[in-house]
Each structure stands twice: as C-alpha cells, then as structure tokens.
Amino acid sequence: MHQNGTPSGHHAPDVSSSLRTVQAQDADQLASELTNWHQCYDQISAGRFAGALTELRRPGLQVFREDLSQAVRQSCRVWPDAIWFGLPDHGALTRINGRQAEADWMMVQPGNIEFELVTPAAYSIYGMVVSRQLLEDTARRLGCEIDWRRVQAADLLQVDRAARAACVRTLAQLLPANGASGLTDGGGNAGAAQADARGRLWQDAVLGRLLDLLDRSCVEPAMAASLQRRRQVVAQARDYMLTHRGNNITVPELCEQVHVSRRTLQYCFEDVLGMSPNAYLRTLRLNGIRRQLHDGRAIGELAGEWGLCNFSQFSSDYRKLFGLSPSAAQKQKSLREGGIHRA
Hints:
Elements: E1 18-24, H1 27-31, E2 38-43, E3 51-58, E4 61-68, E5 72-77, E6 82-88, E7 94-96, E8 99-101, E9 105-110, E10 115-119, E11 123-131, H2 132-142, H3 148-153, E12 156-159, H4 161-174, H5 188-215, E13 217-219, H6 225-243, H7 251-258, H8 262-273, H9 277-292, H10 299-305, H11 311-322, H12 326-336, E14 341-342
Antiparallel strand pairs: 1-3, 1-14, 2-5, 3-4, 4-11, 5-10, 6-9, 6-11, 7-8, 7-10, 9-12, 12-13
Helix pairs in contact: 4-5, 6-7, 6-8
C-alpha cells in the first residue's frame, strides 16, 4: 500500500470459499487487510481507533462488512475488471468522491480506479466486489437486463428501499459482526465438496439480491460542474500540502496556489471533506506521522519533516486525535508488528 493510496499492479482473487475476521487498533492496519484492495485511511475524528473486518470470498466475488469506530477519509482502489457496490448500514452519512450518499442509495465504483470515501464515526458498511464477467453471466442466466455502461459510470445508484433492505439482510446473515456465520470448511474430499456447494449457494443468494437492486435502480443526476470544480480545488490543495508538508503552510498560501478566495477554499473543503482546510492539514500531517512511527526514527524528527516543529503542541494534538501519545503509539506499533488478531 502506498501512502497516497495509489496501488501497484494486482489481480482479481481466485480462491475457494473462505471466511475471515480481523480486528485492528489502527486505521491503516485495517485498510491493509481487505483482500486485493489498495487503500489508505486517514483518521479524522478524535479518539482511540477500533475496527473490524469480516470477509467472505469466492472466485470473482468478495463480500465484506467493515466496522470503524472513528471518522475516516479513505482512498481506495478495487481489483481490476470488477465492480464494487457499497451499502452503508443504518443509512449513515457517507461522502463518495465528494457526493453525499442518501439512505436509499448504493455506492458504485469500477475496479482499478482510485476513489475517495469520507465516513463518520461508529460506521458500518457492507461491500460486494464482483468480477464484471461473473455479474454479466449471472444476469444473462437470470434474465436481467442491466445497463452496464451506466452502472460503471455512476458513483451512486438510487435503489428500491425494500430490495436494499433484503440485500442487507442477506449480507448480515453471511457476515455477522462476530464472524460466526457457520460457513466452515470440512476436511477431506467430502468436506471440500460440501464447502463448495455452500459457497455456490451463498454466491447465488448475493448475486440474486444485487441484480434485483440493479434491475430496479436509477442513477443519480450527473455531478454538477460546481462540485467537480470543488473536488478539483481540494485535490490541488491536498497535493500542495503533501509536496510542501515540511513548510509552515497557511490558508492564504493555499488560496494563492489554487487561485481561489479564502471563502471559496473553505466552502470547497467543507462540501467535499466536511472539514476546514486547517483541520484537514492538521489531520493529514498527524496521520502521515502515525504511518511512519514504525520506521525507527525519532518522533521529533518525523514531526519536523511534517512541519510540526512545536513538539509539545504536536504531542498534545496527536493524543487528542488518536487517544494516546506518540511514544505510546510507537511502542504499540512495535508490539503489534505482525500481530493482527484474526478469528
């Protein structure tokens, strides 16, 4: 996983049915565990992070439930030749590429394209990633006519409320929070055959629910030009922050670089990320340091590289955001190296 969320080459999963659960105390620790995704998570709300992932896979199909205790900005990329569908639980407010997803919407993104999510605290989401070939073959078998070009071009699909609830119920049965869905592999040839039969059953159930959603969906109106411009402003400002991360960056300096007024810059960040430019710069720096605490360098040196030269203020801000001091976090990372809990 790269710092900015840009992946190296990767391929679609090719595995038999397998259920796994992961618990994590660090945002990127959790992000790295989602199979065949390349992700980078910035924690943006204050407090100790706790996350959980329950994942189930078959060849060409991946379903998962992710739970996060804190608000997070996520840079994500799914494996190629696939489509991701996201269903936040309980209608929680989510931003995808700067757009707010309403309670009866389903998020969509094609594989191998980077996208952004901003998720609130105490958040749960169900995800389905399907190879396009498997989805198209299943649609033909079931007699569903889907506008694939429309689906792959969308960020959001408005879906039937009852069909959405039915899909979430199916996923909840497969992916309970404690990971105990009862899907276990037996031993020997008979066990493998039974496991494959169970896998085909849940695969058919998931794809049937998903196609029912797609068959009764409509795409949200095209993104307004004003939102596209706001996203562009935020992206340019973020790139400048990262490139000059060791400098004392000010809001007037950002305005000059992206050629907008102070008020416009504020509106852009609030609309796209839900926070001010200064708040985002602070969380960007603190999360950057959090990722590098394991590399053995002095904490003060890392803070200086990210433009945080007042060590006492940095230490206080770090504790407020992550719920523990930089030195305690560094020790925790060292103890945790290679020790993520799996069930």
